[in-house]
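Thread: quick sanity check before group meeting

JM: Hey all, I'm pulling together slides for Thursday and realized we never actually wrote out the predicted structure for the chain we discussed last week. Dropping the sequence here so it's in one place. If anyone has concerns about the input, flag it before I start.
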Amino acid sequence: MCCVVFDFTDPTKNFKEKDIKRQTLLELVEYITSANGKFPENMMQEVVKMVSANIFREFIPQPRENKLINGLDLEDEEPAMDPTWPHLQAVYEFLLRFVASPETDAKIAKRYIDHSFILKLLALFDSEDPREREYLKTILHRIYGKFMVHRPFIRKTINNIFHQFIFETEKHNGIAEFLEVLGSIINGYALPLKEEHKLFLVRILIPLHKPKCLATYHQQLSYCITQYVEKDCKLADIIIRGLIKYWPVTNSSKEVLFLNELEEVLEATQGPEFQRCMVPLFQQISRSLNSMHFQVAERALFLWNNEHIENLIKQNRKVILPIIFPAIERNAKHWNQAVHSLSLNVRKIFYDLDPDLFKACQLKFQEDEAKEDEIKQRRETIWKRLEELAAKTSNN
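JM (edit): ok, ran it. Output follows.
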């Protein structure tokens, strides 16, 4: 009965049959929950057949007009809700309880919840309905926990989806949900980390910072990244250099996300790893300090509010201060009050800590500024002469 799939585009069509099917599905959910005794193999086969008939389907992109109101693009503002959800929800609930049930023997069930089933299940993560993705996330997590034999296949398939997303389409609805599942998996990695897990960090997680839609899954990605640093602090250098590689140039809101993540990574970074990457790191932070967008500059200055990061900077001030001094000095005249006062605070920290180093950096900065002024004046003089020469030539 439950294998019959109805058309939900017309709410008045098969109304009675739809209701009977929904009630039957709810009864099945109740039975699975209260069952006492191992499920037989023929039942497992029927369960997978019924679930497959209902949930596996192709997603047809709904044609939507690109509405522009007051210059704002309102397309995709609301997620698309599947009209078949009253039945789909019951089927997903049934599948979740079936996989989680102690009466489901994984050794027998793996014949039916096989690679083909998992492949189709992972394809459903591209659903536009967030309710469906939430169920899929929980079910995938349960399958990963129960069917150990499928774990390498699940990881490999997710890798392929990520690769396609990063380097080809940059479009997928379920990236955040995949990362949430992976965050839990990474949390359970045994030490020392396997080479496969390190490659996943380098080839997938770090390049995931590249797509424009990073904000939709950044929280989950940042959690996965920090898990790696907490597992193995030696990876901090690789991660920080990876962030610098994909650092946004013209997207200020994305840059703020990078600075948030950078703080979390630095929080778990130890001295030796910090020293390996501090030169390129603070060259980037210096650029962020002088960003055209005041929120980027403000977020970069907030790094000094973190005690652990401040201590790392203080210990390596002889290398770091000469790199960032020009940016701090320019920000001391910043138009934004918050950036101005934070810059003065950072200036004071360095001056109180090492006045001699501070004065040496200040002297070099003044000399460089004087040279720049001199070059600027020369350019202006040359340009003026060229203009005069051009004017004479045109008159002649």
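AS: nice. The radius of gyration is 29 Å. Residues 355-395 form the longest helix (41 residues).
JM: adding both to the slides.
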